[in-house]
Protein backbone atom coordinates (compact mmCIF):
# COMPACT_ATOMS: atom_id res chain seq x y z
CA UNK A 1 0.00 0.00 0.00
CA UNK A 2 1.07 3.49 -0.73
CA UNK A 3 -1.56 6.10 -0.20
CA UNK A 4 -2.49 9.43 1.26
CA UNK A 5 -4.26 10.21 4.47
CA UNK A 6 -7.10 12.71 3.91
CA UNK A 7 -6.09 16.07 5.33
CA UNK A 8 -3.03 18.28 5.43
CA UNK A 9 -0.33 19.28 7.90
CA UNK A 10 0.68 22.92 8.16
CA UNK A 11 4.37 22.91 9.14
CA UNK A 12 6.79 25.79 9.67
CA UNK A 13 8.22 24.83 6.25
CA UNK A 14 4.95 24.75 4.31
CA UNK A 15 1.84 22.67 3.96
CA UNK A 16 2.16 18.97 3.27
CA UNK A 17 0.07 15.97 2.51
CA UNK A 18 0.59 12.74 4.43
CA UNK A 19 1.85 9.86 2.29
CA UNK A 20 2.02 6.37 3.77
CA UNK A 21 4.06 3.39 2.70
CA UNK A 22 5.93 0.54 4.30
CA UNK A 23 9.53 -0.15 5.20
CA UNK A 24 10.99 -3.47 4.00
CA UNK A 25 10.13 -5.08 7.37
CA UNK A 26 6.45 -4.12 7.08
CA UNK A 27 6.51 -1.18 9.52
CA UNK A 28 4.43 1.85 8.52
CA UNK A 29 6.43 4.66 6.88
CA UNK A 30 5.05 8.21 7.01
CA UNK A 31 6.20 11.19 4.94
CA UNK A 32 4.99 14.76 4.56
CA UNK A 33 5.12 15.81 0.91
CA UNK A 34 4.66 19.33 -0.50
CA UNK A 35 2.36 19.90 -3.48
CA UNK A 36 5.38 20.22 -5.77
CA UNK A 37 6.43 16.69 -4.79
CA UNK A 38 9.30 17.72 -2.53
CA UNK A 39 9.66 15.75 0.69
CA UNK A 40 9.17 18.06 3.67
CA UNK A 41 10.16 15.33 6.10
CA UNK A 42 10.05 11.67 6.86
CA UNK A 43 7.94 11.69 10.02
CA UNK A 44 8.57 8.04 10.83
CA UNK A 45 11.70 6.15 11.71
CA UNK A 46 12.22 2.42 11.27
CA UNK A 47 13.30 0.68 14.46
CA UNK A 48 13.79 -2.83 13.13
CA UNK A 49 14.19 -4.56 16.49
CA UNK A 50 11.00 -2.95 17.86
CA UNK A 51 8.72 -3.07 14.80
CA UNK A 52 6.93 -6.16 16.12
CA UNK A 53 5.48 -4.04 18.96
CA UNK A 54 3.48 -1.80 16.60
CA UNK A 55 -0.21 -2.08 15.82
CA UNK A 56 -1.58 -1.82 12.28
CA UNK A 57 -1.90 1.98 12.25
CA UNK A 58 1.07 2.72 14.52
CA UNK A 59 4.53 4.01 13.67
CA UNK A 60 7.63 5.31 15.41
CA UNK A 61 7.50 9.10 15.17
CA UNK A 62 10.82 10.89 14.80
CA UNK A 63 10.34 13.95 16.99
CA UNK A 64 13.98 15.02 17.35
CA UNK A 65 16.57 16.77 15.18
CA UNK A 66 15.11 18.12 11.93
CA UNK A 67 11.59 17.07 13.02
CA UNK A 68 11.66 18.99 16.29
CA UNK A 69 9.57 21.83 14.82
CA UNK A 70 7.48 19.67 12.47
CA UNK A 71 6.30 16.92 14.85
CA UNK A 72 4.15 19.21 17.05
CA UNK A 73 2.42 20.58 13.93
CA UNK A 74 1.79 17.06 12.65
CA UNK A 75 0.28 15.99 15.96
CA UNK A 76 -1.83 19.18 16.16
CA UNK A 77 -3.29 18.41 12.72
CA UNK A 78 -5.52 15.74 14.25
CA UNK A 79 -4.33 13.19 11.67
CA UNK A 80 -2.24 11.39 14.29
CA UNK A 81 -2.50 10.60 17.97
CA UNK A 82 0.27 9.95 20.45
CA UNK A 83 -0.22 6.58 22.15
CA UNK A 84 1.99 7.62 25.07
CA UNK A 85 4.39 4.75 24.40
CA UNK A 86 8.12 5.51 23.96
CA UNK A 87 11.02 3.47 22.62
CA UNK A 88 14.61 4.40 23.35
CA UNK A 89 16.84 4.63 20.29
CA UNK A 90 20.37 5.83 20.88
CA UNK A 91 20.27 9.05 22.92
CA UNK A 92 16.63 9.87 22.08
CA UNK A 93 13.19 8.33 22.37
CA UNK A 94 10.86 7.63 19.48
CA UNK A 95 7.21 8.23 20.22
CA UNK A 96 4.65 5.69 19.08
CA UNK A 97 1.93 7.48 17.12
CA UNK A 98 -1.15 6.12 15.43
CA UNK A 99 -2.85 7.28 12.23
CA UNK A 100 -6.37 8.55 13.03
CA UNK A 101 -9.09 7.08 10.85
CA UNK A 102 -8.83 4.38 8.23
CA UNK A 103 -5.63 3.59 6.37
CA UNK A 104 -5.89 4.04 2.60
CA UNK A 105 -6.29 0.71 0.81
Tell me what the structure shows.
This protein is mainly beta and 105 residues long. The chain has one domain. It is 7% helix and 48% strand. The strands form 2 sheets. It has a 4-stranded antiparallel β-sheet, covered by helices on one side. The chain starts with a strand and ends in a 6-residue tail after the last strand.
Brief overview, please?
This protein has one domain (about 5-100). It contains one helix and seven strands.
Question: What's the alpha carbon Rg, rounded to whole Å?
Answer: 13 Å
| Strand ordering within the main sheet | 1-2-3-4
Mean pLDDT: 93
Principal-axes shape call: globular
How far do the termini sit from each other?
Answer: 6 Å
Q: In percent, how helical is the residue content?
A: under 10%
The ordered string of helix (H) and strand (E) elements is: EEEEEHEE
Please name the defining characteristics of this protein.
7% helix; globular; mainly beta; 3-stranded antiparallel β-sheet; 48% strand; 105 residues; 4-stranded antiparallel β-sheet
List the helices and strands and how they pair.
Layout (H helix, E strand, L loop, with lengths): L2 E9 L2 E9 L5 E6 L5 E4 L15 E4 L8 H7 L3 E10 L2 E8 L6
Antiparallel strand pairs: 1-2, 2-3, 3-4, 5-7, 6-7
Amino acid sequence: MRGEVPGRVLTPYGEGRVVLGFYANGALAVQLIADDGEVITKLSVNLVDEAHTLGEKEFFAKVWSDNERIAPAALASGLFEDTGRRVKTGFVEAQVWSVVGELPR
